[in-house]
Write a structure and sequence with these properties.
By secondary structure, the protein is mainly α. It is built from 7 helices and 6 strands; from the N terminus they run αββααααββαββα.
């Protein structure tokens, strides 16, 4: 999967990660992260890892293929947990305890690897040096999810309402907070055309 196909328009890093599965709410979702290398490519496209670190992660995966596969599967579990957490919240359904436990496990790991670092006369948060596995990718994703869930923006998280099961998650930043679809160019136009057709049929 080319990094040019990754979408980073949701308004949140955690939602961008959840959206790496296309047609998430349909009967036939389309996987966007098919292997460990795709996970690295997404992290690089998201600006979470440099080209140098990406190369080191690829080399590590060649040397530790079993561990790389294990971490890849865990990343997918985290991705699916994030999707269900935000999807359920939008639908007014209870958040699965198991999914919240998965997120919490990564959040705890992430917080244990944050450190305060001086930069430009100010103090900033910085990730401690660590490249093993996908930590540098999952840590900021989990932190983003935690910050979003505990902020006022959580009430603005939406899921595309296309009846085919688009499932795209996004933060509604429209003026009147009435956005319902991933975009008007795709699912929005289809819904508009269906409404128009229904009106014609009823006359």
């Amino acid at each position: 999967m080319s990094d040019n196909t990754f979408d980073f328009e949701s308004g949140s890093l955690s939602l961008d990660f959840a959206n790496t599965m296309n047609w998430h709410a349909s009967e036939k979702p389309e996987e966007g992260l098919n292997q460990y290398s795709d996970l690295i490519a997404w992290g690089q496209a998201a600006g979470l890892v440099s080209a140098e670190i990406a190369d080191r992660l690829h080399s590590w995966a060649i040397e530790q293929p079993v561990e790389a596969l294990r971490i890849y599967h865990f990343a997918i579990r985290v991705r699916e947990a994030l999707y269900r957490i935000f999807s359920n919240r939008y639908a007014g359904q209870p958040i699965p305890e198991e999914d919240l436990a998965i997120l919490n496990s990564v959040v705890r790991d992430a917080m244990a690897h944050l450190q305060l670092t001086p930069l430009g006369g100010e103090i900033h948060w910085e990730w401690a040096p660590e490249i093993a596995g996908t930590n540098l990718i999952l840590w900021p994703v989990a932190r983003s999810a935690a910050e979003l869930l505990t902020s006022t923006r959580a009430s603005l998280v939406r899921e595309c309402e296309d009846d085919r099961g688009c499932g795209y998650l996004f933060i509604d930043q429209s003026k009147n907070h009435s956005r319902r679809w991933c975009s008007m160019e795709s699912c929005g136009n289809r819904a508009k055309a269906r409404r128009h057709y229904s009106r014609i049929q009823s006359t």
